[in-house]
UniProtKB/TrEMBL annotation:
Domain of life from the UniProt record: Bacteria
Name of this chain's protein: VOC family protein
PANTHER family: BLR2408 PROTEIN, BLR2520 PROTEIN
Pfam families named among the record's database cross-references: Ble-like_N
Domain (VOC) ranges: 3-127
Amino acid sequence: MSRMIFVNLPVQDLDASVDFFTKLGFTFNQQFTDENATCMVVSEQACVMLLVRPFFGSFTTKDVADASSATEVVLAVSADSREEVDTLVDQALALGGSPTKEPQDEGYMYGRSFYDLDGHAWEVMWMDAAAVQ
């Protein structure tokens, strides 16, 4: 059975986050969008729900992590090429994201990462599947 995944992230400013990710090329499912949340489509099987912090907090009995000072998760997305990795991360940085660490280059695998506007860590990875086999 193939399953979908919905990653839920708290955000300070929903409109700013939508603008940031739209400029990175992501789309949003308006059916699951209102003033508290939006559904960012990553693929047919993966979505990221961006939820305003108070609304996000209603889904848990624990404190909501502050991604600007602690890492709660690293979200990794694939790219079709090394160039696409660089393009996406460079664009995220130009839109107000911040750098995390130096690029990781293993020859057959290349990745870079950034923090989004709320401090969530995103990693963009390309891998030569033929080299791994």
